[in-house]
Hints:
This protein has 352 residues and is mostly helical.
Amino acid sequence: MSTLEDRYRRLLACYPAAHREAHGEEMLDVLLSAARPGQTRPSIADTADLLLGAARIRLRRAASGTGASPRRDALAITGLLAALLLMAEAARFAVDVPTLIGAATAQGNGTIGIYGLLYFFGTGPYWLAWTVIAVLAWRGRRRRAATAACAVTTAQIAFAVYGTALPDHSYAYLGRDFAGTSLPLALLATASLAASPGPRRGARLLGRARLAGAATVAAALLALHTYPAFSLLTGGQTGVDPRASMDRLIDAAQTMGELRAAGALVAAVLAAAALARDRTSRRAFVLLALVGAPALVNAAGEALPDSVPGTAMLLPGSLMVGTAGLVITGLCVRLVESPAGTRARRRVRSSA
């Protein structure tokens, strides 16, 4: 094999395996026949043309949902679960609207000004946008859903960076609202819409039982994060004496934080159990760690306020925690799969 042929084969390796099997040798013959005498390296034009062609084919296959692979299937499962959690967050916002209206009206002495609208309802358009995206994706309009998701997530990233980098500027609080758990959820859902067969494929891979379980867990987490649940915990009132009222609120907030931490931990355990039965599901669980690790850290911060540094719950710290969770979970999955893989290889060798 000549040096030039070897280098062309490395470039052709960027194409999907099915495309290489059907057209690889023909493409290689054309490239070698067009080479100059004594040429040892692909030209810049040929290199760029091959790489762009590989990117176009892979993007076209991703957009059409063909050519499913374990990784893309795992991303489809992850995207479905991320979208489900985003819809739970949207439902939480809708449930909290009456309480938010009361708080905004009280702060504005009977009226809701521009500041009150932005402070209490500034994330409303975001949840509405993701609801529309979820409906488009489930109805099979995946290309439109992916385009809308990319636009919404790009705006969310910009707001999150603004609110985190410039905390003292106008409406920075709104940017910090976009830098929470919803950001990694949006990133996973957007990546799934752009590069996987889509949520319907994820639903088929999960099956009805696991999908119903995921919806139940999402509903339970939704209930624990609503103002009505907090009001129910305090009995709907905080007492007459202001000091007693504040003490009761503090105790209720501590209890609610502990309940949320327990809910997040139980959700993580159930997700691990439900997604541990096959390789594709295990890879989906690894991707979910990007969201699950910061969520667990934030829940621990609510339950044990002095146990988690405040920086771990801001945007840079949250991303670092999510990345660490992704790496650690991936290593754990590899350790779990390694003995099974070794036994399978031994059985193949013995049968051969």
